[in-house]
Amino acid sequence: MRDLDRRPDSRCFCYDSGPGTNQQGHPDGVVRDNSGAVIVNANVTVTNVETSEIRATKTSSLGAYRFDAVTPGQYTLRVGSTGFERFEATGVTVPPSQVISYDPVLKPGRVDQTVVVSADVVLLDRENGSLSTTIPEVSLTKLPIFSLNPLNS
Question: 89: which strand partners?
């Protein structure tokens, strides 16, 4: 570390990382659907073709993902999310000391895929469409009586 002026109000923190230490790549991007909307919490993986090393992350609330300190080389990028077809891009090159952006677009699930939605709450009673309740006598006596005669108030 270089000798710096270390006054209490000094906010500069500089250091010499040495030669050749910043050789890692940084793949990032934004995952969207075919309408352009971002996909939150999608699973994103990069797999090094040469070493089979796998790195995984999830997209943020903005649909963004980023991998830091990735060894340069050829990668396969895979993205998956519920309700969408799985996305795969092969031959993605991660160069040294650079950020490479790759924005996958996911298509909605195919027709032969099944999306199951279930709920236990009954929203409508299909057997009997009537609504009923009992009004207690106390509530009836407290109801105001409106008439057209101004003398009956």
Answer: 77
Neighbours of 46 (CB within 10 A): 22
Tokens found for residue 146:
């409106």
Lowest model confidence (mean pLDDT) among 34-38, 70-74, 126-130: 126-130
- In this structure, what token pair is assigned to residue 91? 């031959």
What are the residues facing 92 on neighbouring strands? 75
Q: Whole-prediction pTM value?
A: 0.58
Which residue from 72, 78, 44 is spatially nearest to 58, judged by alpha carbons?
44
Query: What end-to-end distance do the CA atoms of the chain give, in Å?
Result: 91
For the chain, domains (ranges, CATH) are: 26-106 (2.60.40.1120)
* Each residue's pLDDT tens digit, 98-140: 888 889 999 987 645 555 544 444 445 556 666 667 777 777 6
Burial (CB count <10 Å: 0-12, 13-18, 19+), residue 25: buried
